Amino acid sequence: MQHKAIGIFDSGIGGTSIWKEIASAMPHENTIYLADSKYAPYGKRSKEEILELSKKNTEKLLELNCKIIVVACNTATTNAIKVLREQYDVPFIGIEPAIKPAAIYTKTKKIGVLATKGTLSSELFSQTSDLYTQNIEVIEVIGSGLVELIEEDKINSNEMDILLRSYIEPMIRKNIDYLVLGCSHYPYLIPNLKNILSDDVVIIDSGEAVARQTKSILTANNLVNPNPNKGSHTFYSNADIKTLRNILSKGNTSPIISALDF
Ligand code: DGL
């Protein structure tokens, strides 16, 4: 059981930002990543569709013999993780917009949250937001089109710059001092965001916290891999693997990247 892989899925390549944190926090673990790019973006889909896709990915990861599943997608976590936990007998780790630290540390009492429509309209998000943001103004913005451009390998395009400015500038005018990235694709936009935001605005993403949580759940369940060697990393995409390859080529691991129909 301990030698089995950590399974990770996202609607596309965005969850690789979470995978990077996991691989660096637990270098001896094997990982299997599913990029469900064929069905991206999830953010525009109904709750029922997001749940069906999440189940499909979970079943594929279980078939591939994974010991734990990381839902590296805010949209899938906020809409489906409760049901996944009820239906499958394996530990699940999810990712949610990190509103809590932003709400604790904001001085201007105004925080921005950039996420998908699916995440911002979910019950789980509104519960978390209500819990931590009393007396704080939360400026929620749907990042329509951002996931598509990242999936199309257009991170540094003019189109991306224009779109991102249209979402961030209204937040700047409201005087936010924290920007919460509520989508696992968005950490790839941090260099772009830094060009738009002043140095006083702190950008928060949840990648490190998810890796820490994964480690602690593996430990609590006696699932840590005792392997002394470096883990192996396999990536599957059900669409063109080019973007996945590009995004992973920047790291220093040698992942196996293949096409798979799922
Ligand atoms: N990476 C997904 C998330 O964290 C993107 C959602 C989408 O496909 O719209 O929400």
How would you explain this protein's 3D organization?
It is a single chain. The chain has 262 residues and is an alpha/beta fold. The chain has helices at residues 16-25, 47-63, 74-87, 99-105, 117-120, 123-132, 146-151, 158-173, 190-196, 207-220, 242-248, and strands at 5-10, 31-35, 66-71, 92-93, 110-115, 137-142, 178-182, 202-204, 233-237, 256-259. The strands form 2 sheets. A 6-stranded parallel β-sheet has the order 4-3-1-2-9-10, with helices on both faces. The radius of gyration is 18 Å and the shape is globular. The two termini are 24 Å apart. The model has no long low-confidence stretch (mean pLDDT 95). The protein binds D-glutamic acid.
Structure keywords:
262 residues; four-stranded parallel beta sheet; 11 helices; alpha/beta; six-stranded parallel beta sheet; single chain; globular; binds D-glutamic acid
Distance between the termini: 24 Å
Oligomer: single chain
Report the C-alpha radius of gyration, rounded: 18 Å
Instruction: Identify every distinct bound molecule in the structure, by name, code or SMILES.
Output: D-glutamic acid
Instruction: Please state roughly what percent of the residues sit in beta strands, choosing from under 5%, 5-15%, 15-25%, 25-35%, 35-45% or over 45%.
Output: 15-25%
In the sheet with the most strands, the strands line up as 4-3-1-2-9-10
Mean pLDDT: 95
Low-confidence stretches: none
Q: Helical proportion?
A: 40-55%
Compute the number of strand runs. 10
Total count of helical runs of at least 4 residues: 11
Order of helices and strands: EHEHEHEHEHHEHHEHEHEHE
Going by helix content, strand content and strand pairing, the class is alpha/beta
- Major sheet attributes: 6 strands, parallel
Shape: globular
